[in-house]
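ok so I'm stuck.
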Amino acid sequence: MAMNNNTWAIILGGSDGIGLACAKRLAKGGFNLLIVHRDRRARGEELSAINSELISNGIATHWINADAALPATIDRALYELNEVDKNAKVSCLLHSIARGNVKPLANATDTLTRQDLHVTADQMAFCLLDWVKALHQGGHFTPEAAVIALTSEGSQRAIPQYAAVGMAKAALEALCRSIALEYAPFGIRCNSVQPGVCLTNSFYRIPGHEEIEAITRKRNPAGRLTTPEDVAGVVHFLTTSEARWINGANIPVDGGERIA
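replied:
not stuck anymore, here's the structure
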């Protein structure tokens, strides 16, 4: 893809983990970045250093610390993007939100509730459609835009205390397929990317993560875990013209972990 200084990527959840690795890779590829994130003030200096690294690629950045699932955040993001760059066009929308409830189903005192399911699905799946609709209806997408969402193996496999996230990821994959089908006539492609186990902050919030890590190291044919950079390379590829005929796919990036 020939980049110009009005080409933007919007990353939902781009300040940490895989989302941050994708931000760095897209910045190297020439994308300006609008990053929607949720962080405490304590990360201020760290995020400032990250921003300096990103703009060293000669690109522009704009950060919004807010809940990406709220309609008001979408309105704010599009308004501020226009203020920053009146000719901005969005060529990539990446959903990398990792906020979800990890609770047991059969625990009398701390069990997963209907509200937990709703909040997790709203963050990890439903809000993607809101962003796609707003960008499309507002004419913000480029003619060949890529919508990409990060999912996980938990969408197909039962993992203890992962029910809400697994459900949300399964919904996200189904939503991506429908976006791929119904927005293809407008030149918009949509794919999901399924990373293997990555040592990110969101992974460390999963109960029993130590055992999952140990098992995965033995299970993976390559004998190592997936890195955020492994995933970021594939995400960047999906934004290129070489990937223009990839649509509606769920792409595993796990070194063969899922088949072992």
